[in-house]
Amino acid sequence: MTASPTRAAVVGAGPAGFYTAADLLKAGWEVDLYDALPTPFGLVRFGVAPDHPKIKTVTRMYEKTAKHEAFRFMGGVCLGTDITREELLGHYHAVVYAVGSADDRRLGIPGEDLAGCYAATEFVAWYNGHPDYADHEFDLSAERAVVVGNGNVALDVARMLVLDPDELAVTDTADHAMRPLMEAGVREVVVLGRRGPVQAAFTNPELLELGELVRADVIVHPEDLELDDASAAWLDSDEADAADRRRVEILREYAAREPRGASHRLELRFLRSPVEILEEDGRVRGLRVVHNRLEVDAGGRLRAVPTGEEDVIECGLVLRSIGYTGRTLPGVPFDERRGTIRNEGGRVLGEDGAPLPGEYAVGWIKRGPSGVIGTNKKDAADTVARMLEDAEAGALYTLADADRDAVEAWLRERVPDHVTWEGWRAIDEHELGLGEPHGRPRVKLVRVAEMLEIVGRRGG
Ligand SMILES: Cc1cc2nc3c(=O)[nH]c(=O)nc-3n(C[C@H](O)[C@H](O)[C@H](O)COP(=O)(O)OP(=O)(O)OC[C@H]3O[C@@H](n4cnc5c(N)ncnc54)[C@H](O)[C@@H]3O)c2cc1C
Ligand SMILES: NC(=O)c1ccc[n+]([C@@H]2O[C@H](COP(=O)([O-])OP(=O)(O)OC[C@H]3O[C@@H](n4cnc5c(N)ncnc54)[C@H](OP(=O)(O)O)[C@@H]3O)[C@@H](O)[C@H]2O)c1
After folding, report:
1. Is 221 helix (H, G, I), strand (E, B) or coil?
2. Separation of 222 CA from ligand 2 center, angstroms?
3. 191-203 per-residue burial string, b: 16 or more CB within 10 A, e: under 16
């Protein structure tokens, strides 16, 4: 058994990192929570859509965790750039990777690098004020946009493109994105699913919200809702739940609706895959799509199979929203196929398939880029249960030689301007103060230098 107190470095201050920290603190550990950015909360700050402020109030729970006396925040410290895995292992009994899945997945079709074709990951990070994307530019002048993918992120970006300026004005959308979005030329957004309505990955509250958009009609074509036999049988089976049946019902309600004649349209199309992004003068001019039918594969899953029938959707903007994937960390075993850290139940596995003492993974980088914020709570509890088992069995990293103060001294030397929780609170208060007079939740700082200046002024 390890003598008390046991110390963990949790790398990544998103939901998974915070839930892990909370569980470890409860078990009597000391926790230092690192993040590459001076700001905590991961995708709650840089992913969740600006018009969903209620969802972001989950951070109040994380603030409670941060109040614990055995908790420290080490912001602005990037593992792999500022510090190494070996250094962390030298200072802690356990290191938990909670770094999320920041990269986009590509379609792998011709034309993907044309001007006017972007990854939703980048678009989302831009309108949410992620410092790494503050200088990106998106040409939103096209009248028609196509969003490829049928998940909740696809619905988020589609909605952001048609929000009314009055709806946008009261959000924490980054200032650099506010005008481009308000003045966007987009009048019509087509959301493209490669499979059918029964297989769509978006959830019902998000689908229902489309029907409440101030200035957009939701268009669903009745012929897209004629289910193939396998989908219809699945929907009637015990495998489907009430939410699956309700999703199809909501789509049927949309298909039966008379358009209100709104200035904008948001159209949901199914059973179509992009095969080529068409070009004119170096820019996107359209998307060639093939129609699909569904076929049961060897694993019993219904997959899209091209029928050969094709259409061209004229458009000037394509956003691919087909999921995220993880980024490798130097020295940390990675499963290229899954885009996650190689692990079993959260225990990081070495080349030989055996667990590496004291190294763990949690959240999206452990299980892949799916699941809502709350999913990471159970996921963190599972990883922490294994950590506690390993601590009991004496199987943590035992070479950790520094105490709490020595860690602080080491980090001050390595990353002198790292940001403490006090420092983040200074940034937070500054942002809230900027937003208040305009009825906005906050005005986000998007430059790290500016954040550090605010922290410096307060001595955080
Ligand atoms: C666009 C979008 C919108 C979403 N909206 C919702 C929603 O409305 N409701 C909902 O319930 N769920 C939503 N989700 C899902 C939810 O955000 C995720 O389930 C959750 O954020 C995953 O948590 P995580 O901690 O694994 O990763 P993340 O939230 O991505 O956190 C990872 C953290 O690690 C840090 N990091 C990365 N690399 C390093 C490094 N090398 N060194 C140090 N730190 C590093 C990052 O800066 C980040 O802070 C959304 C997801 C996306 C992509
Ligand atoms: N409001 C919210 O609660 C909210 C908001 C945003 C995100 N989230 C959550 O965050 C997670 C990630 O969301 P996400 O939308 O990025 O991922 P997702 O839910 O996994 O959806 C990805 C979509 O991309 C499609 N796709 C994948 N490869 C494709 C290809 N080559 N061509 C065409 N389509 C392709 C998938 O179709 P197939 O099914 O056919 O593979 C699927 O429809 C989800 O769990 C989501 O619920 C929640």
Report:
1. coil
2. 23
3. bbbbbbbbbbebe
Give me the DSSP letters along 176-210: HHHHHHHT----EEEEE-SS-GGG--S-HHHHHHH
Domain count, the chain: 2
CA distances to 116, 120, 149 from 123, rounded to whole Å, are: 12, 5, 14
Q: Residue 98 belongs to what domain range? A: 7-102+326-418
For residue 70, the 8-state DSSP code is T
Tell whether ligand 1 has an atom less than 6 A from the beta carbon of residue 37: yes
CA 16 to chain centre: 12
Domain containing 359 — which CATH number? 3.40.50.720
Ligand 1 and 376: CB distance under 6 A: yes
* Spatial distance between the Cα atoms of 371 and 388, rounded to a whole number of angstroms: 25
Residue 205 CA, closest ligand 2 atom number: 1
- CA dist 124 and 16 (Å) reads 20
Q: Which pTM value belongs to this model?
A: 0.97
Residue 17, domain member (yes or no): yes
Q: What pLDDT, in 10s, does the model give residues 74-129?
A: 999 999 999 999 999 999 999 999 999 999 999 999 999 999 999 999 999 999 99
The 10s digit of each residue's pLDDT in 316-341 is 999 999 999 999 999 999 999 999 99
Task: List the strands of the sheet with 272-280, edge to edge.
Answer: 272-280, 283-296, 302-314
CA of 370 to the centre of ligand 2 (A): 8
